[in-house]
């Protein structure tokens, strides 16, 4: 495992912030002004000039500052270097469907994995000017883009103790029409057990909202490292817990995540394991 100093992580955080803010200027430039929206192959998986141009801006900044680090960027793919224990996972526009429909919930998400573990994360929502940041051992914060370093506002997960008092969030992957593992059963069941389940459409902000205590928990499958890297370190540094559904250690390559305020982790895990698509009909025929 590589040893990194907090000074080094802080520097990574500052550069990632610079990149996220530069990318967000591109997103705002095209906001409401898209001439065309393309599909990437799979039905419903959209891409726009804003995704591509904002990614180019991020790549230039990360490469200039960290020429030896590897990069995994949603629109351009993977660039591997010898010093491959450092991997930047970049989503230039998380929430492209929202963005294309002018639904104001999207972000830029930039995470740094060291030896496969998320250690630095920056998520910026340019519509609300909310900048979420975290790094291992440095805590998690939410500020405006212009907030000076000394004034940063720490964030913490919610104090909600039980699932029936929780507000959750989830999402549905682009393969949902092709797989029975489409999260529909889990969504129905958790809607029944909680105060509500949101489907906001930007995985990175879903995680940031768990970190900030606005939501109590999140689960989803079919995600990519760029959706998750930054949000995972935010939740962890804000006092939350991130694992697989069965509470085994989180592994970013599985694309499956359960993130909570820690207090409801056990209950959410057992609900997710209890429900399965084939049990849903039986469940709803038995409830009053
Ligand atoms: C998507 C969003 C969405 C999640 C999808 C992701 P994109 O990312 O995060 O909330 O449910 O699985 O792919 O395509 O907008 O970057
Ligand atoms: Ca995404
Ligand atoms: Ca994206």
TrEMBL record:
<dbReference type="Pfam" id="PF00459">
    <property type="entry name" value="Inositol_P"/>
</dbReference>
<keyword id="KW-0378">Hydrolase</keyword>
<dbReference type="InterPro" id="IPR033942">
    <property type="entry name" value="IMPase"/>
</dbReference>
<comment type="similarity">
    <text>Belongs to the inositol monophosphatase superfamily.</text>
</comment>
<feature type="binding site">
    <location>
        <position position="74"/>
    </location>
    <ligand>
        <name>Mg(2+) 1</name>
    </ligand>
</feature>
<dbReference type="InterPro" id="IPR022337">
    <property type="entry name" value="Inositol_monophosphatase_SuhB"/>
</dbReference>
<feature type="binding site">
    <location>
        <position position="91"/>
    </location>
    <ligand>
        <name>Mg(2+) 1</name>
    </ligand>
</feature>
<dbReference type="InterPro" id="IPR020550">
    <property type="entry name" value="Inositol_monophosphatase_CS"/>
</dbReference>
<dbReference type="GO" id="GO:0008934">
    <property type="term" value="F:inositol monophosphate 1-phosphatase activity"/>
</dbReference>
<dbReference type="GO" id="GO:0006020">
    <property type="term" value="P:inositol metabolic process"/>
</dbReference>
<dbReference type="InterPro" id="IPR020583">
    <property type="entry name" value="Inositol_monoP_metal-BS"/>
</dbReference>
<dbReference type="GO" id="GO:0046872">
    <property type="term" value="F:metal ion binding"/>
</dbReference>
<keyword id="KW-0479">Metal-binding</keyword>
<feature type="binding site">
    <location>
        <position position="94"/>
    </location>
    <ligand>
        <name>Mg(2+) 1</name>
    </ligand>
</feature>
<feature type="binding site">
    <location>
        <position position="227"/>
    </location>
    <ligand>
        <name>Mg(2+) 1</name>
    </ligand>
</feature>
<feature type="binding site">
    <location>
        <position position="93"/>
    </location>
    <ligand>
        <name>Mg(2+) 2</name>
    </ligand>
</feature>
<dbReference type="GO" id="GO:0007165">
    <property type="term" value="P:signal transduction"/>
</dbReference>
<protein>
    <recommendedName>
        <fullName>Inositol-1-monophosphatase</fullName>
        <ecNumber>3.1.3.25</ecNumber>
    </recommendedName>
</protein>
<dbReference type="GO" id="GO:0046854">
    <property type="term" value="P:phosphatidylinositol phosphate biosynthetic process"/>
</dbReference>
<keyword id="KW-0460">Magnesium</keyword>
<dbReference type="InterPro" id="IPR000760">
    <property type="entry name" value="Inositol_monophosphatase-like"/>
</dbReference>
């Amino acid at each position: 495992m590589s040893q990194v100093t907090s000074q080094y992580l802080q520097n990574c955080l500052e550069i990632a912030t610079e990149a996220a803010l530069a990318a967000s200027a591109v997103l705002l430039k095209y906001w409401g002004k898209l001439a065309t929206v393309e599909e990437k192959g799979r039905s419903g998986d959209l891409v726009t000039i804003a995704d591509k141009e904002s990614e180019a801006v991020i790549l230039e900044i990360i490469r200039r500052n960290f020429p030896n680090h590897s990069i995994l960027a949603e629109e351009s793919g993977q660039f591997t270097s010898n010093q491959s224990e450092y991997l930047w996972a970049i989503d230039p526009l998380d929430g492209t469907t929202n963005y294309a429909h002018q639904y104001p919930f999207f972000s830029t998400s930039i995470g740094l994995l060291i030896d496969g573990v998320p250690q630095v994360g920056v998520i910026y929502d340019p519509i609300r000017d909310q900048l979420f940041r975290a790094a291992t051992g440095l805590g998690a914060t939410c500020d405006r883009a212009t907030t000076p370093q000394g004034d940063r506002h720490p964030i913490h997960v919610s104090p909600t103790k039980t699932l029936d008092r929780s507000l959750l969030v989830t999402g549905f992957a682009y393969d949902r029409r092709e797989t029975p593992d489409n999260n529909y059963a889990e969504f129905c069941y958790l809607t029944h057990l909680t105060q509500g389940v949101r489907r906001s459409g930007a995985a990175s902000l879903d995680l940031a909202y768990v970190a900030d205590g606005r939501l109590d928990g999140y689960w989803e499958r079919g995600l990519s490292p760029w959706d998750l890297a930054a949000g995972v370190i935010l939740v962890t540094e804000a006092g939350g817990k991130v694992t697989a559904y069965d509470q085994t250690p989180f592994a970013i390559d599985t694309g499956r995540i359960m993130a909570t305020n820690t207090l409801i982790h056990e209950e959410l895990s057992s609900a997710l394991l209890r429900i399965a698509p084939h049990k849903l009909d039986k469940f709803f025929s038995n409830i009053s």
